[in-house]
UniProtKB/TrEMBL annotation:
Its EC number is 3.4.11.18. PANTHER family: METHIONINE AMINOPEPTIDASE (PTHR43330:SF17). Binds 2 divalent metal cations per subunit. Has a high-affinity and a low affinity metal-binding site. The true nature of the physiological cofactor is under debate. The enzyme is active with cobalt, zinc, manganese or divalent iron ions. Most likely, methionine aminopeptidases function as mononuclear Fe(2+)-metalloproteases under physiological conditions, and the catalytically relevant metal-binding site has been assigned to the histidine-containing high-affinity site. The gene is map. SUPFAM superfamilies: Creatinase/aminopeptidase. A divalent metal cation 1 binds at D94, D105, E232. Removes the N-terminal methionine from nascent proteins. The N-terminal methionine is often cleaved when the second residue in the primary sequence is small and uncharged (Met-Ala-, Cys, Gly, Pro, Ser, Thr, or Val). Requires deformylation of the N(alpha)-formylated initiator methionine before it can be hydrolyzed. This is Methionine aminopeptidase.
Length: 247
């Protein structure tokens, strides 16, 4: 069942989203070669708590950390670790928090030191996939209208869109209905309604879209070892258009 949110509930989700946006701004200042993703995880957990919100991923279905830290060929759900980041790495930090029981979800990709031109282009195109798709998230459109923009922009750049990890509804629960891949055709899929809140979170690979789950049962990697980037916002569908809650 899809749970439509009231303007008051969306406002509470926006408070959670504001904490995430501020947290990502601070992480951007921190990221450098030699830093560990476990240090970033611990910072994010403290930051969220100090700003009146709660982390929600640690303990979710046994997941052991407050964030997901995914480096290079790791698409998503990577475990923060004590391994230092290297010059040229790209890092995805995916964070969820709640404020008064209402959640927001956001991911950004960070360059570590000097990265390759291919990595720079992958990050840029992935961010463009998110930014270009959000304006299509309006009442009366279908999810295919939104996701077609993601798929078309990524593929025109020579990249591929991950199919096996999906966007989803969010509210009092981290994962609510509906769920959807970031590929689609205009006019297809479920209808966007006022009060829906969804995550738009394209995961774009430099190589092919296939992936596998690592031995830990969580870490998703590109099957061909290529780089992967991701950007994510929590977006409310309102009568006045899409409202990004995590910027």
């Amino acid at each position: 069942m899809i749970h439509l949110k009231s303007p008051q509930e969306i406002a509470l989700m926006a408070k959670a989203g504001a904490v995430l946006a501020q947290c990502h701004q601070e992480i951007a200042k921190m990221v450098r070669p030699g830093l560990t993703t476990l240090e970033i995880n611990d910072f994010a957990e403290r930051f969220i708590s100090e700003h009146g919100a709660k982390q929600v991923t640690k303990g979710y279905k046994g997941y052991p950390f407050a964030t997901c830290a995914s480096v290079n060929d790791v698409i998503a759900h990577g475990f923060p670790s004590q391994e230092p980041l290297q010059d040229g790495d790209i890092l995805k930090m995916d964070i969820v928090c709640s404020y008064d029981g209402w959640m927001a979800d956001s991911c950004r990709t960070y360059a570590v030191g000097k990265i390759s031109e291919e990595a720079e282009r992958l990050i840029r195109v992935t961010k463009e996939c998110l930014d270009l798709s959000i304006p299509k998230a309006i009442v009366g459109n279908r999810i295919g209208d939104v996701m077609h923009v993601v798929q078309q922009h990524a593929q025109q750049a020579g990249f591929s869109v991950v199919r096996d990890l999906v966007g989803h509804g969010i509210g009092r629960e981290m994962h609510e209905e509906p769920s959807f891949a970031h590929v689609g055709k205009p006019g297809r899929g479920f209808l966007l309604q006022e009060g829906m809140v969804i995550t738009i979170e394209p995961m774009i690979n430099a190589g092919k879209h296939e992936m596998f789950i690592d031995f830990d049962g969580w870490t998703a990697r590109t099957y061909d070892g290529s780089l992967s980037a991701q950007f994510e916002h929590t977006v409310a569908i309102t009568r006045n258009g899409p409202l990004v809650l995590t910027e």
